[in-house]
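Schema walk-through. Below, the input block comes first and the output block second. Nothing else is stored per chain. Lengths vary across the set, and this one has 294 residues.
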Amino acid sequence: MQPLKSSSLPIQNVRRGKVRDVYDLGSSLLIVATDRVSAFDVVMNEPIPDKGKILTQVANFWFNATKDILPNHLLSAKVSDYPDELRSHADQLEGRSVLVRKARVVPIECIVRGYLAGSGLKEYEKHGTVCSIQLPKGLGMAHKLPEPVFTPSTKADEGHDENISFEQMVKTVGQDLAGRLRELSLALYQRGRQLAAERKIILADTKFEFGQMEDGSLILIDEVLTPDSSRYWPMEQYEPGRNPPSLDKQYLRDYLETLKDWNKQPPPPPLPPDIIQNIRARYLDLANRFGVQV
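--- output ---
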């Protein structure tokens, strides 16, 4: 089957994100994970075969594995449960779509870091901090932090998200909600780290998104602990001080960093076939370790 770069359904499309197409069904939403891939907030021209199915199935695994910590938006992932007019479009929906509750999105990316990498490492090397949180001296690439740290960021519809301090988060959402989101994010990360470790994987960091129902209660939304929203390393190849091989989108970022003539702005550079295949292989490896069939 050909990769799905964009979905086309006979219902109202309310948003096309970097990866997901969102449709309004009145009392609920339909989210379709395409095979698009983005890096540095730029969507690549070439899709990654089966990527949307992998993301959806991995996210659904985690929604089920964390629902005792916090309810989530998932209503159904079965096309047979969808409205009649969608069932004839199963070729676009099977395995890569979910029917979800509507919620008011909390405008904060809730990031938890258990290891030093990415933008956190860059800040630490300059200031000894991550999102203004002071860390011990002597840490380096891929070093495990003494305790996981909660490092929120803005949630930008366009352009780049920006890391903010917890105090700045409080100004945006209030003290009580900020504290609750931090507590939930750390609990979800600990569950993810535990279950990943049982499968010989290190969950280095991840981001969560939350929504509020009409009564003010929180639910987990969007995606959870996927290779697009998390940094995963195979435990058998992990070595502090070295950039570990990834089972996530970091492989793509690392490749793009080698392109001296691309400024991380649209249009994106073309992706060679071997890079596309290697990205797909890493996503499939992660899915297989979680017992997810694609």
